[in-house]
């Protein structure tokens, strides 16, 4: 596994079934001009298979929740259990529902980021993601405190 302290490049694994979301994240990464390498998977099943067979793991996972087949939550459970517990997983969703936020916390997600709208906001998100990774900080605040 790469040592994040010696590398300037963020190796990001983006799991999202929405082709447009994958495309625009890649576009935002290019527009940010930061050293970020993005690997994409269109489903939780695909991502899990690829990560299980990989010699090197990403520095961070950016994970959508609602996907056909294996949901982001199901992927997160399996990933933490069978692949690598220490890789930070950032939930990346359009949902701002308490139940989703709480579930992400329970499963050990490092952060929960609501997808930005518009390319400019997405570029800013990518920059924040990169710099937070370098500083070992959260890329975004949890959307709101959930009531138990």
Biggest sheet, in brief? Answer: 5 strands, parallel
> So how many helices?
5
Helix-strand pattern: EHEHEHEHEH
Distance between the termini: 37 Å
| Poorly predicted residue ranges | none
The assigned CATH architecture is 3-Layer(aba) Sandwich
Description:
Helices cover 41% and strands 17% of the residues. Strand 1 (10-15), helix 1 and strand 2 form a beta-alpha-beta unit. It has a 5-stranded parallel sheet with strand order 2-1-3-4-5, with helices on both faces. 32% of the residues are buried. It has one domain (10-135): Rossmann fold (3-Layer(aba) Sandwich), CATH 3.40.50.2300. It has helices at residues 19-32, 44-52, 72-82, 98-106, 119-135; strands spanning 10-15, 36-41, 60-63, 89-93, 111-114.
Write the SSE topology.
Elements: E1 10-15, H1 19-32, E2 36-41, H2 44-52, E3 60-63, H3 72-82, E4 89-93, H4 98-106, E5 111-114, H5 119-135
Parallel strand pairs: 1-2, 1-3, 3-4, 4-5
Helix pairs in contact: 1-5, 2-3
Quick rundown:
The chain is of the alpha/beta class. It has helices at residues 19-32, 44-52, 72-82, 98-106, 119-135, and strands at residues 10-15, 36-41, 60-63, 89-93, 111-114.
Structural descriptors:
Rossmann fold; single chain; five-stranded parallel beta sheet; globular; 5 strands; 148 residues; alpha/beta
């Amino acid at each position: 596994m790469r040592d994040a302290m010696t590398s300037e490049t963020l190796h990001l694994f983006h799991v999202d079934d929405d082709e447009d979301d994958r495309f625009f994240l890649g576009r935002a990464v290019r527009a940010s001009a930061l050293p970020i390498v993005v690997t994409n998977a269109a489903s939780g099943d695909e991502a899990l298979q690829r990560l299980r067979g990989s010699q090197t793991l990403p520095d961070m996972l950016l994970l959508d929740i609602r996907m056909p087949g294996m949901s982001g939550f199901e992927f997160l459970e399996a990933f933490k259990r069978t692949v690598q517990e220490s890789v930070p997983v950032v939930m990346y969703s359009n949902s701002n529902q308490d139940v989703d936020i709480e579930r992400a916390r329970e499963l050990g997600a490092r952060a929960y980021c609501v997808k930005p709208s518009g390319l400019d906001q997405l570029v800013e998100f990518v920059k924040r993601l990169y710099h937070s990774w370098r500083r070992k900080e959260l890329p975004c605040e949890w959307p709101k405190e959930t009531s138990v």
